[in-house]
């Protein structure tokens, strides 16, 4: 988020990927979930049964709430790294 | 074949691996992270080139350096999904790397899978913007990013204050800090922590920091609801009795866009269960723990457990627990020497000194009875399958009393997280309704995969119950 103390932290170069139709800037190598959170995108999917909004929760690959689709696979956004041109989609349960 | 395989490269597991290597054994260390450190000394994201050093980052870097310069074989970014012991007592592990799957075998297996978080459900806990306290620490340590623009931190135990102070350190804004513990409980814990004045002082500094920043600190209080449709908008904070029951009239509404919520750590016992070890319930150690001797030997031959998964004693105790279980493995495989005996005695003494602190910290997170009452009828207890408290209660009234039967009756715990976030609350609800003890309620059957396997490689919609059930001794 915008308010973090960024002056003392050096990060990698910016790259960009897409989340559905949105182009998102990220630091090369950071996770999809962190890059999206930085841009304020936290609603990552809807739960299959209750259809309620969900986002990253455990941040460490346990809860599966952050699951998104990359190349046809469901992956954990909190553990999957971004790369330039990566196409990330919301999962749909149909 | 390896002499020793260690699962988990946190402070316990990494030290176990280094100790076993020191005694000349052939060691493999496996972790799902990209380097050693575990959750507590979590390695920074590769996207961070440099950042101010902290005590934790220094300790983690030192450990990573030691692992790197050792002869220990390493498999990072690898998840263990199956554990089996054959008739000759050889361990066989199913592994899943970045894309490929393989297996590996070893004579002794040391499990150091650490802790997982207990988050007791409440209205709105599934909203985007709500994070576990441990999840929040991952955001800070790995990404140096804040959970939101204004955050409420709530729950029990020391993590509440740690997360709050990290948010301040990273320049974030706190709307409120809400701790279920009373000042008195903290004083009591402090008296037991007196052997570690440094750590105690750290705690005092955390609270002091909140005071000078003028951040409202609600003692002996809880969130009764997190409100919002798609995002967190505000939260209700309520005073509780000392048993955690809400005092309905004492309510404040606080605006926030994010919430960090957690109620202590529980041992991550899936691996020791899958490996067939006996477990018992001990709330002072965080709940279900493998039954071990003082060196971490479990009830299964050549199976050891060290670190928080063998009972929550915290990061200070973890390295000694790692050393002890490695020494036990070395002695079981190659016999004891005067060096192993001396080493054992030394590590045991240090462990004793550190353990008291861990126990006092864990005592602050033993769930209070009232917390269960706070779970409203329509709250989704099982986040994955969307099973509400009401649905669970109906199943209990129908006569389901074991986690297995509730699971098959409601699907609670059958989602992709494998029940990791609901089994604790499910057991607490069962306990309050049926008056059984946690030992009587038991645990659901242990099944692979050990960790969520999110790749659709196993099948398109992974149904955990369709996977082969290993020969695990029932609890
Ligand atoms: S946030 Fe829990 S798995 Fe990613």
Question: What value does the Rg of chain A take, in angstroms?
Answer: 13 Å
SS summary, helix count of chain A:
1
CATH superfamily of the largest domain in chain B: FAD/NAD(P)-binding domain
Order of helices and strands of chain A: EEEHEEEEE
Report on this model:
The complex is a heterodimer of chains A (94) and B (475). Chain A has 94 residues and is mostly beta strands. Helix content of chain A is 7%, strand content 31%. A 5-stranded mixed sheet of chain A has the order 3-2-8-6-7, with helices on one face. Chain A has a two-stranded antiparallel sheet with strand order 4-5. Chain A is globular. The N and C termini of chain A lie far apart (33 Å). The model of chain A is unreliable at 1-5 (pLDDT under 50). Chain B contains 14 helices and 22 strands. Chain B has helices at 11-22, 55-68, 133-143, 158-169, 183-192, 197-212, 270-274, 318-334, 338-363, 370-373, 389-397, 403-410, 423-434, 438-441; strands at 2-7, 27-30, 48-50, 73-75, 79-85, 91-96, 101-111, 115-117, 130-132, 150-155, 173-179, 217-218, 221-227, 234-240, 246-255, 258-262, 265-267, 279-282, 287-290, 303-305, 380-382, 387-388. In chain B, helix 1 (11-22) runs parallel beside helix 2 and helix 11 (389-397) crosses helix 13 (423-434). The longest helix of chain B has 26 residues, at 338-363. At the A-B interface, strand 1, helix 1, strand 5 and strand 7 of A face strand 3, strand 9 and helix 3 of B. FE2/S2 (inorganic) cluster (FES) binds at residues 56-59, 61-66, 76, 78 of chain A.
């Amino acid at each position: 988020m915008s308010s973090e103390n960024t002056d003392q932290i050096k990060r990698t170069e910016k790259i960009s990927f897409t989340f559905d139709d949105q182009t998102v800037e990220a630091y090369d190598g950071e996770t999809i979930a962190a890059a999206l959170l930085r841009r304020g995108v936290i609603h990552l999917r809807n739960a299959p049964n209750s259809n309620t909004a969900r986002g990253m929760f455990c941040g460490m690959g346990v809860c599966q709430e952050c699951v998104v689709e990359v190349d046809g696979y469901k992956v954990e956004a909190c553990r999957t790294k971004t790369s330039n041109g990566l196409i990330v989609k919301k999962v749909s349960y149909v | 074949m390896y002499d020793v395989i260690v699962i988990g490269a946190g402070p316990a597991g990494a030290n176990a691996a280094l100790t076993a290597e020191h005694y000349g054994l052939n060691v493999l260390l496996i972790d799902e992270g990209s380097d050693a450190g575990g959750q507590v000394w979590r390695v920074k994201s590769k996207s961070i080139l440099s950042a101010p050093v902290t005590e934790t980052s220094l300790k983690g870097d030192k450990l990573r350096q030691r692992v790197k310069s050792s002869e220990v074989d390493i498999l990072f970014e690898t998840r263990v999904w199956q554990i089996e012991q054959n008739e000759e007592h050889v361990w066989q592990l199913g592994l899943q790397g970045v894309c490929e799957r393989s297996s590996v075998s070893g004579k002794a297996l040391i499990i150091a899978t650490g802790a997982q978080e207990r988050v007791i459900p409440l209205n709105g806990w599934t909203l985007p913007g709500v994070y576990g306290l441990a999840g929040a620490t991952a955001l800070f340590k790995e990404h140096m990013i804040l959970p939101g623009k204004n955050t409420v931190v709530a729950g029990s135990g020391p993590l509440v204050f740690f997360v709050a102070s990290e948010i301040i350190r990273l320049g974030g804004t706190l709307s409120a800090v809400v701790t279920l513990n009373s000042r008195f409980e903290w004083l009591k814990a402090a008296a037991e922590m007196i052997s570690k004045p440094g750590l105690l002082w750290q705690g005092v500094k955390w609270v002091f920091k909140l005071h000078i920043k003028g951040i409202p600190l609600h003692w002996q209080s809880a969130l009764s609801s997190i409100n919002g449709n798609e995002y967190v908008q505000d939260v209700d904070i309520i005073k509780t009795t000392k048993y955690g029951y809400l005092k309905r009239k004492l309510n404040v509404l606080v605006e926030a866009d994010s919430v960090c919520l957690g109620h202590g750590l529980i041992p991550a016992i899936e691996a020791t269960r899958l490996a067939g070890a006996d477990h018992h319930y001990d709330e002072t150690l965080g709940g279900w723990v493998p039954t071990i001797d003082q060196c971490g030997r479990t009830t299964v031959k050549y199976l050891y457990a060290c670190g928080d998964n063998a009972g929550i004693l915290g990061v200070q105790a973890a390295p000694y627990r790692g050393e002890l279980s490695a020494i036990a493995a070395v002695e079981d495989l190659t016999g004891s020497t005067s060096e192993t005996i001396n080493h054992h005695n030394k590590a045991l003494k240090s462990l004793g000194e550190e353990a008291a602190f861990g126990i006092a910290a864990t005592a602050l997170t033993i769930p209070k009875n009232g917390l269960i009452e706070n779970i409203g009828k329509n709250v989704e207890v099982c986040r994955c399958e969307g099973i509400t408290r009401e649905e669970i209660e109906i199943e209990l009234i129908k006569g389901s009393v074991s986690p297995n039967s509730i699971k098959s009756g409601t699907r609670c715990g059958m989602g992709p997280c494998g029940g990791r976030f609901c089994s604790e609350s499910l057991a607490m609800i069962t306990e309050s309704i049926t008056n059984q003890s946690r030992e009587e309620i038991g645990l659901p059957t242990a099944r692979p995969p050990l960790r969520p396997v999110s790749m659709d490689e196993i099948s398109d919609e992974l149904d955990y119950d369709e996977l082969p059930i290993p020969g695990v001794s029932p609890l």
